[in-house]
Amino acid sequence: MATIDDEETMFETLDPVPSEIATAISDGLNAFNESAEIRREAFAIVWRENGGLAGGITASVSFSILFLGNLWVAESLRLSGIGRKLMAAAEEEGRRRAAVMACVDTLSTQAPDYYPKLGYVEFGRVSGHAGGRPVDRIWFRKEFFAAT
Fold it and tell me: What is the pLDDT of residues 2-46, one digit of tens each?
């Protein structure tokens, strides 16, 4: 185990985080997890229109759970059903990768009513403040059931 007690060792705060630092931290954790046989399969699903990116979702599967990351649809296409299609495609890909449930989080200022419409159930919430107003971070889950 390493000890931090010499003058050449120091903590450093980086803001913004350089991409090479974020990559090094992520790669280090992924290497540790793989050595412990904890796999994380990351993927993205995108929606393209006229050759350009019009929406997408990032996700990963680990511990037989689909973790949904960022869901984005171009402003001009919101409320068109593309978000639902992206969610359904991510869920299907998660099932294909042996996920038995999906988890996603959002803020009370973003889409807290969206996920329950897709069958997600709230399982956690923490309250905080942003810009002087209260904001909650909310976690949702959806269990996948085998087709009968």
Answer: 555 566 667 788 899 999 999 898 888 878 777 766 678 899 999
In a domain, 118, yes or no: yes
Is residue 144 within 8 A of residue 102, CB to CB? The reply is yes
Domain count, the chain: 1
Backbone angles phi, psi at 46, to 5 degrees: -120, 155
pLDDT for 39-57, tens place per residue? 788 999 999 999 899 999 9
| Tokens representing residue 25 in the block | 């931290």
* CA atoms lying within 13 Å on the CB side of residue 85: 13
Tokens of 49: 């229109």
- If one counts every other C-beta atom within 10 angstroms of the C-beta of residue 55, the result is 20
Backbone angles phi, psi at 120, to 5 degrees: -90, 145
Residue 97: inside a domain, yes or no?
yes
